Amino acid sequence: MLAVVYDAFGETPELRSIATPTPSARGVVVRVEATGLCRSDWHGWSGHDSDIRLPHVPGHELVGRIAAVGAEVERFAVGDRVTTPFVCACGRCPECIAGDGQVCRNQTQPGFTHEGSYAEFVALHDADVNLITVPDDLDAGAAALLGCRFATSYRALVHRAHVVRGEHVVVFGCGGVGRSAVMIAAALGAHVVAVDIDAGARAAALAAGAVAAVDPRAETDLVARLRELTDGGAHVTIEALGLASTTDAALRTLRRRGRHVQIGLFAADPVVPLGVVIAGELDVFGSHGMPAADYPELLDLVASGALRPESIIERRIPLAEAPAALVALPESPGVTLIEVS
Predict the structure, then answer these.
(1) CATH top-level class of 151-286
(2) CATH homologous superfamily of 2-134+308-339
(3) pLDDT means per 10 residues in the chain (341 residues)?
(4) Where in this chain does the record put each Enoyl reductase (ER) domain (predicted)?
(5) β strands within the chain, DSSP E
(6) Residue 93: which of 262, 265, 291, 298 has the closest Cα?
(7) How far apart are alpha carbons 25 and 43 in whole angstroms?
(8) DSSP one-letter code for 318
(9) pTM higher than 0.85
């Protein structure tokens, strides 16, 4: 099969022919239809993930049809159109039994623990607990983006922060994950303020449902401005960049008893203003994907028309253009979808 492969961290990947994977006993092999270009893939390529072994194929947001099935798979068959969370659970550990497969102690992650979806085929493990059936009429881009950024944002807002209609939500960073958080929060009836240095990202956040979009460089006191826009402080803040400065600002923007959810990944652990957390009795959560069992409620939101994940896709490129696109990702605004087949 053709796949995007890098042999060293930070070096430009290349498109080459490698062996097509075979399914594990409880796994499947999926013919990839489309896969998202995600900042997490860039972090992996940059050498920020200790699970990656070289040479490596990135990619973890995907949709496709099952091409081969392991002998112990019971719920899925060749030809089924599916997606998967980027964290694939084992289904057997205490976390999985409790319904928390997104933090499975034995988790596998396509594009991190093994070869990913920047390829014609990808292997997915423990299929019966990880695959989600995707309707044939759902846009490939919408289906692929559900696997990471939309599921992560949905869990952050609904299952972690428990956002309710009328609350003030501030989203820091309006790339793919941040923009999906804006869309979901707006669909939930929240008043959303977006923060980003890029004018295009701010415009996209407004189009996605934000009531205001702030350029932090234009503010002499960013926190004061955000508190003004949120009637004294946000109920919920989302940080989708992975920068210490924006996490600090997000915590200081919260009203007392507010909730912060950290989505952005850090290259190194930041210093966090715990004094602010203590004084305001703030809740600080992480959001690390969503278990497959919780996807139906997200798909229902998409089916209702209240959420259109495909609307944030700005570029659709072939697999041959993926190596250069991965390298250039930090300088490329908007969301890119890689169309494979």
Answers:
(1) alpha beta
(2) Medium-chain alcohol dehydrogenases, catalytic domain (3.90.180.10)
(3) 97 97 97 94 91 95 98 98 96 96 96 97 98 94 90 95 98 92 96 96 94 97 98 97 95 98 90 96 94 92 88 92 94 86 89
(4) 10-329
(5) 2-5, 14-17, 28-37, 62-69, 81-83, 121-124, 132-133, 168-172, 191-195, 212-214, 234-239, 254-262, 283-286, 313-318, 335-339
(6) 291
(7) 30
(8) E
(9) yes
